Amino acid sequence: MQRIPAHVGDRIEAIETPALIVDVDAFERNLERMAGATKGTRLRPHAKAHKCVAIAKSQLARGAVGICCQKTDEAAVFVGAGIRDVLVTNEVVVPAKIARLAELARAAHVGVLVDAQPCLAALSKAALRSAATIDVYVEVDVGAHRCGVAPGTPAVELARAAAGAPGLRFRGLHAYQGAAQHLRAPEQRRDAIASAAALARATREAIEAAGIKCEIVTGAGTGTWRHELDSGIYDELQPGSYVFMDVDYGRNVPDADDLRFEQSLFVLASVMSVPADERAIVDAGLKAFSFDSGLPVVHDRPGLVYAKASDEHGVLAVAPDAPPLALGQRMRLVPGHCDPTVNLYDFLVAVSHDVVKAIWRVDARGALG
Amino acid sequence: MQRIPAHVGDRIEAIETPALIVDVDAFERNLERMAGATKGTRLRPHAKAHKCVAIAKSQLARGAVGICCQKTDEAAVFVGAGIRDVLVTNEVVVPAKIARLAELARAAHVGVLVDAQPCLAALSKAALRSAATIDVYVEVDVGAHRCGVAPGTPAVELARAAAGAPGLRFRGLHAYQGAAQHLRAPEQRRDAIASAAALARATREAIEAAGIKCEIVTGAGTGTWRHELDSGIYDELQPGSYVFMDVDYGRNVPDADDLRFEQSLFVLASVMSVPADERAIVDAGLKAFSFDSGLPVVHDRPGLVYAKASDEHGVLAVAPDAPPLALGQRMRLVPGHCDPTVNLYDFLVAVSHDVVKAIWRVDARGALG
Asked: Smaller CB count within 10 Å for chain A: N or C?
C-alpha cells in the first residue's frame, strides 16, 4: 500500500510525492455551497467519489440525509464506520453480495436498486433470512442507457412486485441521467435533465395511479444537480464529485446561474528529471492518475503541459518562456477524473495554508465487490 | 481494500467478481518461454508489472538474476520479502527516498539510475551514511525522450562522476527504449532498437575509452526484448508484461520469428443488468481496469464488445446473433494495459483448469513513493 505521505502539522514541502492532497478550505467551501443550495431537499452525496469516512461524516454533519455507494463492499465500509443510511445506487445480483447487503440492513438503513424481477426475489429472501428490511428503488432508464427498466409500464410492474415483496420496502425511483453530467453546453445538460425529469414524472404518476406509493425520486450528479432540483420531480440529489472537481468537470461550460465548485483535489508531484529545456519529468504517471477522461493539467504554472505518461512518469512539455524547472521542484496537478484517481491512493492529505491539517484514509479504496 | 475474492480449492464459479485472475498454466508457460529464450544472458524481469512477491520468486527460481522496480517503495516491499537483487529503473531525487534506498542497500544488492550530477552526490552521501554500496547506472536517452542524458559525452561525464563517487559502484548504462515497445509494425520495433543499440554501443565505447569500466548495458521490454538480445550490446533484459500480456501488446503485429506470449491475465466480471437485447452491463468499470491504453476486450465470447465504462459499470454491446446473456453470467475480460490494471487490485487469483490454485497478494500495490 501507499506509504503515509505526511503527518499532521507538516509543511506542504514535507509531503512525500506523489500524494493526493485536498485544499481543505476549497473543499469545505464546496461542502457548504452544496449544502446551502440544496437546503430543503434531501442531499445524499455519492461516496464513490471520495470513499472516505471522514468526508462522509463532514457531509452528514452539514445536513446530508445519508450517502450513496456504488458497491456492496463500499457500503460495508461505511456502515462499519457507523454511517446509518446508505443507498447502493446499483443492482446487486450475486447471492453472496445480496446476503451481505441484507446483513448490513440489520445495522443501518440500507437501500438498493432493482431493474429485474429475479433480483427482487433474491433480495426479499435474503432480507427475511436476516430479519432485516431493505429499501428498494426501481432504476429507470431516463436517458443514460446503462442499467434500468424502461419508463412507464415496465417500471410500474417492477414497483408492484417490489411493493409486495416481504422484507423489502419500495421507496421510489432511481432516475440518474449519468450521460448528461459531462455534456459540455449548459443547454444540452438542461435539455437532457428536462427529458429525464419528464420520464421520471410520468413513471411516478403511473406507479401512483396503480395505487403504489412512490415516495422518492432520487438521482442527479455534479454536472446537472441544479436542474434536477429545479425540476420539482427529484426529491433527493446524489452529487459526489462536487467535493473535489476535476479537469473533465472543468470542461463543462457553466450556465450563468450555475453554482461554481472549486478545484480542491490535486496530485502533488516532484520533478525527477530535467533532461532538456523543453521537457521535464515528474514522478506521477499512469499509477498516480486515472486517464479515462484525459490527461491531468498542471495547476497554476503557465507554460507547463502534462503531455504524456508512462507507469510512473509524467512528461511535461515546457514552453520556451516558462521559468526553468529544478530537480525536486514540486507542483500540483489536477486529475482528469477525480473518482477513479482517488481509488489509486490509500490516503488523502488535507492541507490548509500550506500546512497538513489531517490525513484521511481512503477507507473504501479497492472495495470492488 | 479489496475483499479476498476466493479461496484455494474454490471452483472458478465461486470467485467473487470483479476479480483479477491469472491463468496459471499460460502464465507459467510465459515464464518458461522467456527464461528459455534468454538463457545465457541476464534476465531481470520488471516487477512493476505484477508487484507480487510470489511472482518475483517464480521468476528468480527460473534463473532471473534479480528484479527491476520502478519506485523506492516497491523496492522496499520486495527487499522486505527477501529478494536480494533489485534495480530501481528510475531516478530517485528526494532526500528521504535516497536515504531509504541506501538503507535497502544494506540488506540487498540495490541499483538505481542517475541522469544528473546532483543526485549522484546525494546518493553517495546517503550510501556512506548507511555504510552501504549502491549500484549506479547512467540512464541514456536512446530514443524514448523521457529521462536520461544524451548519448556520448554527457553520459561519459556522468559515468566518470559515478565511478569516482564513494559509496557508489558504477555498473553501466540503462538504455531502455520505452517508446519502441508498442510500435505496431515489426520493422518499426526492429529499427528503433537498432538505433537504440547503436547509441548504447557508442556510449559504452566512449566510456571505456575514457578508462571507465562499463560492465552492463541493461534495458528492453516485452515488445522488443528479442532485438536487444540479438543486438549483442545489451547484457541484461528487463521485460515485465510478458508474464500477463494485454490488449495493447496484442495490437503489436508480430515478426515471423517472434516468441509468442499468451494472455494469462483477465478480469472476471459478472453481468449485473440486461436492460435490452443489444446491451448488457457488467460489474467492472473504470475502477476495475486502467483505460490509458484503451478499452478491455471480452475474451472468447464472439458478439460481445466492451463499449464504454463508468466507475463501476461496463457497457457491453451485444450483437444480434450473440447468445443471449443472463443475469449473473460471468466472463473474462482482457485488460487494455496490464501494469496499471494490476495496481487496482489487492489480490491475484491463480486459476488452473477452473480451480483456484493460489491467492497472490499484490504486495506493492499503491507503492507510489
From this structure: N
